[in-house]
Design goal:
single chain; 664 residues; Jelly Rolls; 2 domains; 12 helices; 22% helix
Length: 664
């Protein structure tokens, strides 16, 4: 029986061929439509090269089971294809599928329509302070599954031209109902361990005895298998059985055998398979949400009293607690540590994290880990600092975490140097276990990925009079166009030149500060999220390693094709999440369940290992986020272990499997 006809019989909605869907090439490809089939010619040596099917209006995927695409390989060699469902105005991929096709082969690629969160009935105020459910903060949160505006299809990089075609793109199948009714019976919904009360799943803790038994069983397993699964591993996690390169007593980079590597202090090649936030960070706000919780101790409780904390929302992004000042927080993760290990839990926690990372195959701790854990000198780590207390561009309204720094302020370099002395750990300046420093996080350069669209220049224009960057921009325009020039006189070339100079000043200044405070320490950049070519070029000129946070199905580290220094790159954050382990939000890259989550995790890391520029990838993050969210509302189920310090066994086994492949 013809499988294509069977698939088409179940079609719910056809997107291509369709009168209003336009196939558009990207990244050097060309496309033509022949008899209703999109034929795509792929340029060589491009990272992502293919076709984008743009819809006339967004398509809601929450009612479909999967997005299907029929692809044929017209090339005389095997090609790997990837399909993404894209949301307009963002780099997020809401669905993804992939397939390997031999010469002349065709296949239907099914991309599961995975939910980022449960939907909600339209009545009520939702769940304030929880991303996806806070109606006052996110009016569109009734359906937070992601509407797509296009489907992109591309093949992985080729050394020579390639060709493929796309015959059809359609959605099919139905999703089960996943609706939350937020009524009086829903509250409370958080149990004494910080877990969701209205569901069960593998690994959920139901009693104190079960919590203690799980901890004992894990301790026995760690004691029985304490060594790293990496064959020939050295003390740092590098390949001790591999080539002996120059040992400098600190981490550095080297291009060896045609591929970039980190090199550990003993002179062995090193891949940073890491995890962010190796620490307890389970604090969630209680103020104005007391009814969420079935149990909260008194603030003077002899065991749990110091699990109470105070906090305030301190970032630029909007959320429920923005502007509410200091509020009460409770840390369920810390409370569970005390249940297991008693009041002196911290020393045991530090020791256990290092033993876990070694036994599971992680080679490093990523950003924002606990200084007390980092300074134990048992696992390589990354430190960081932010440019706090520096004059900002006041017109910047698009930065997620903080405003863009004003690199033209007279005291900019002096203040950057002061900030460089404020890393999380003073020991990291000279500690051989410190790999390097990130500076800032997801600094806002542009809205569109790789799009030089003038966001920074516009923020400068929108700033008050007297803003140093604004004064400098107008000076440049008058020099180029005459004394009567205004900001309206700026051409695209003016905007690009101005923003390129900002990038050059930013990265060169930070590099000088890092070199002065911590000579020889690796500078790893600002962890690009959205970026544009001139900023990447400047980063490559001055950073030892260029960093990206890449929340996508596969690592994405944009590299302009021309005028860029060959530099190693690192992924500072990535993750996959699902709703089958007691969470209401899956995170930034959703999966159908834990099984698919692990499949994507392994595919992501394996792709990174094969990339000649990537020297590491860092999972975000160590423990699941609080069910009811951080102060900024993030409440993702994306940890290596849960709030009860119970490792997700699938995640551990996958990491051990990947660790065995790092230096193969």
């Amino acid at each position: 029986m013809n499988s294509t006809l069977v698939a088409l019989a179940a079609v719910a909605q056809m997107f291509f061929p369709a009168p209003d869907t336009k196939p558009t090439p990207f990244d050097g490809a060309s496309v033509r439509v022949e008899n209703g089939v999109a034929v795509v010619d792929v340029a060589p040596r491009r990272k992502f090269c293919g076709v984008n099917f743009v819809f006339p209006k967004p398509i809601a995927l929450n009612r479909y089971e999967k997005l299907s695409t029929e692809i044929s390989n017209r090339t005389d060699r095997t090609l790997d294809f990837v399909v993404h469902g894209m949301a307009k105005g963002t780099h997020r991929r809401f669905v993804q599928g992939k397939v390997k096709l031999g010469p002349g082969e065709s296949a239907v690629v099914g991309a599961p329509c995975c939910r980022r969160s449960y939907t909600m009935v339209a009545d009520g105020d939702g769940l304030p302070g929880m991303m996806g459910y806070d109606r006052k903060y996110r009016p569109d949160s009734i359906d937070h599954t992601g509407n797509i505006s296009s489907v992109i299809v591309f093949c992985m990089p080729q050394d020579t031209p390639a060709q493929f075609d796309v015959k059809r793109v359609w959605a099919e199948g139905t999703q089960p109902d996943m609706t939350l009714t937020i009524d009086d019976a829903f509250f409370p919904f958080v149990d004494e361990f910080g877990q969701f009360m209205h569901a069960d799943w593998p690994g959920k803790i139901h009693s104190l005895d079960e919590l203690l038994a799980r901890a004992k069983a894990e301790e026995e397993k760690l004691a029985a298998h304490p060594e790293s699964p990496i064959p020939g591993v050295d003390r740092f996690g590098g390949w001790g059985a591999g080539p002996q390169l120059k040992a400098t007593g600190m981490f550095r980079t080297e291009k060896w055998n045609g591929r970039w590597w980190l090199v550990d202090p003993d002179g062995h090649i090193f891949f940073s398979l890491g995890c962010c936030y190796v620490r307890l960070n389970g604090k969630t706000a209680v103020t104005a949400r007391e009814k969420f919780f079935s149990w909260l101790p008194e603030k003077d409780d002899p065991l749990f009293g110091d699990c109470w904390h105070k906090g305030r929302h301190q970032w630029l992004n909007k959320c429920f607690y923005q502007g509410k000042g200091t509020v009460a927080q409770f840390d369920f993760a810390e409370a569970n540590q005390k249940r297991i290990y008693g009041a002196d839990w911290k020393a045991k926690f530090i020791d256990r994290q290092h033993r876990r990372m070694r036994a599971w195959g992680f080679t490093s701790m990523g950003n924002w880990s606990d200084p007390a854990v980092m300074e134990a000198s048992r696992t390589p780590y990354f430190d960081n600092f932010n440019l706090d207390g520096i004059r900002k561009i006041e017109g910047d309204k698009k930065g997620a975490w903080r405003k863009f720094p004003d690199v033209y302020a007279p005291d900019f370099e002096a203040n950057v140097l002061k900030c460089a002395y404020r890393t999380r750990s003073a020991k990291s300046r000279t500690d051989p276990w410190c790999i390097g420093w990130f500076v800032e996080n997801e600094l806002h350069w542009a809205t569109g990925n790789m799009g030089a669209n003038g966001d920074v220049a516009k923020a400068v224009v929108d700033s008050p009079e007297g803003q140093p960057a604004k004064v400098e921009y107008l000076r440049r325009l008058k020099a180029a166009h005459g004394a009567d020039a205004t900001f309206a006189s700026a051409t695209a070339e003016d905007v690009r030149a101005f923003e390129a100079d900002i990038a050059e000043r930013y990265f060169s200044t930070v590099k000088r500060a890092v070199q002065k405070v911590a000579p020889g320490r690796l500078y790893l950049g600002c962890r690009f999220c959205n970026s544009y070519p001139d900023a990447i070029r400047a980063a490559a000129r001055h950073c030892d390693v260029v960093s990206y946070n890449s929340y996508s199905e596969l690592p994405q580290t944009p590299r302009p094709e021309t005028d860029i220094v060959d530099k190693p790159t690192i992924i500072g954050e990535f993750h996959f999440g699902s709703l089958d382990r007691g969470f209401l939000h899956s995170g930034l890259v959703p999966c159908r369940d834990m099984k698919e989550r692990i499949e994507k995790y392994k595919a992501y890391v394996r792709y990174a290992i094969q990339d000649e520029h990537l020297v590491g990838v860092h999972w975000f993050y160590w423990h699941d986020m609080p069910l009811t969210g951080w102060m900024d509302g993030e409440n993702f189920g994306n940890g290596v272990m849960d709030v009860a310090d119970n490792p997700h066994p699938e995640m551990i086994e996958a990491t051990r499997e990947l660790a065995r492949e790092l230096y193969r």
